[in-house]
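With this grant's support, we have settled on a layout for protein records. A representative record follows, to show the layout.
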Amino acid sequence: MLLTEAIVLKLLAAALLARIAWLDFTTQKISNRDVLLLLCLGLGSLLLVSLQSASWWDMGLSAVAGLLLFLALFPFWLLRKIGAGDVKLLAVVPLLIGGSGLTVFSLLLLVFALATALVVKNPLLLPQSAFRVYVQHLDQRGVVPFGVPISAAAICTIALQIYWSFVLANSSGILGQLN
């Protein structure tokens, strides 16, 4: 179960992820400042949960997953196949969602990345003509704002974690005891 403070940190992280997605979509840039702030929010949340549960397993698993993602994606950045901001964002997300959320995040990222690729390759599926022109422009430049599906998958994972935290609190009677 997530602590109230951890939930607040995760909600702040979700808002920052929405900002990152918007900025990546409009400017194709993910700032180091935003990634560092996400890292701090994620580490703070993981630290609170680890202290409450007296188990550092989730934090260790998250750190290993982040390091492995960075090492796996760094060569793609060197080959200019993915942006540096995307690599850094993907390396920080495991620390933000925790080791227990990696499977859900991975599945959601796959779905959102496929949807993004579909929209970029077939902009006529979109309803607004101005939006279609922008996506066609992205396709012609060969740029895909990968921060958008990363952020969307992380936000949905955070939302599911918070939801399950409340379900667990209701089913165990904790909320009833507090009232």
